[in-house]
Design a protein that fits this description.
The structure is a single chain. The chain is α+β, with helices and mostly antiparallel strands. It is 40% helix and 13% strand. The relative contact order is 0.11. A two-stranded antiparallel ribbon has the order 1-2. The chain has a two-stranded antiparallel sheet with strand order 3-4. Helix 2 packs across helix 3. It starts with 8 loop residues before the first strand and ends with a helix.
Length: 113
């Protein structure tokens, strides 16, 4: 049985129990608080974190290393080390250059398929 859909979430297409298949999204304010909390925990623990996102800007904001995969085929489109100090400021030229490069790589790879 597929769980009932909720505003701000999407459910998988296969049958599942409860919320185990649901993908929940956060509003912009909550996402910002969660990003700050993740960075705070990471700064204290200094451990590796694998973070999966569909947002290139979020990846540049949080990650030191980004892997971008193409849609559908899942091939590696970009492998980029982010050499920006924390805290990062979206909209700066360096931030925009990295995000733009990732978008270009993803766009060129996905249009070639």
């Amino acid at each position: 049985m597929t769980p009932p859909s909720r505003e701000g979430s999407a459910s998988c297409e296969r049958p599942c129990n409860g919320d185990q298949c649901s993908v929940h999204t956060a509003d912009a304010q909550t996402r910002g608080h969660l990003q700050a909390e993740l960075l705070s925990i990471w700064a204290m623990q200094r451990t590796a974190v694998l973070f999966v996102t569909h947002s290139i800007d979020e990846a540049v904001f949080l990650a030191d290393h980004i892997l971008v995969f193409t849609p559908r085929s899942g091939r590696l489109a970009a492998d980029v080390a982010v050499d920006l100090s924390q805290p990062r400021v979206p909209g700066t030229p360096a931030f925009a250059a990295i995000a733009g490069g990732l978008r270009a790589a993803l766009g060129s790879e996905s249009s070639a398929e």
